[in-house]
Specification:
Elements: H1 2-17, H2 26-31, H3 36-57, H4 60-80, H5 85-106, H6 110-133
Helix pairs in contact: 1-4, 3-4, 4-5, 5-6
Amino acid sequence: MKTLFWVATSLVLLPVSFAQEPARTATEIVESEEKPIDFWMEKKLDYSTAILRGLAMQDFDEIQANAQKMRVLNTMEGFVRSRNKEYRKHVNTFQVVTDELITQSKQKNIDGVTLAFNQLTVSCVRCHQSLREDGDSDAETTLSVPSTRR
């Protein structure tokens, strides 16, 4: 029941959060199996870049808006890719850190936002390390970053 609530909420909020994007329904996004990782990664990188810009400019509204969009996107991606247990763990960590980023931006706490953004970055790096180590080729199709492990 809780999953159904989040899916329904995400489907309602998704069009709002992507209002600046070309018109695509939530169903089209979720059902897009051509290159779903391309879409997810591209959007996360866009939002994280905007958060960093907001951080540099001390624009808490921009930080909060992009963190909220990233949270909705992460919820949708977590639903689509829920079959990978390790990935679900990273999605949960990402959600907690994103919530902290939103909280700190609402409080206009530049140090708190900076720390939360750093934690968000670490969360991303750890998740992608895990996916590469597990050999999840689908998850790393757009990341041509070579592993530093030998």
